Amino acid sequence: MWKTKRNVKITYKPLSSQKLEDIVSYQPISSDKQKTVLGVDTVGKNTGEWDWRGKGWLMIASSHWEVLGWGELEGGAQWVVTYFAETLFTPAGVDIYSRAKRGCGDEVVKRIKDALRGIEDERMGKLTAELFEVARD
Hints:
By secondary structure, the protein is mainly beta. 15% of the residues lie in helices and 43% in strands.
């Protein structure tokens, strides 16, 4: 989904102890227009699991996602790794997010990929191999 997008930003706002508003903004690679996807995340059955439902015309879309790991970079910037299930519009995947404008850096990404490859799941290995850096200005 992100291969044709840039400057992706995800913001979570608490709605209750069980729900988050999920705001995804991005720009297409070939445009300066800002686009937004809105949804609501509801706490899943297990710790770190969430169920997303789109808002507006995306109300028909839903997805399950999980936090696989997180950490902190030197200087206090944080990162998180998530797995998300297939939706009507996107295949399943793994994302690495960072609060640092520069991203996580090659060494942290390498360590995350190594850890993901250590998960004994063929699908996770495939998803890890497909990871790529999203363009940002």
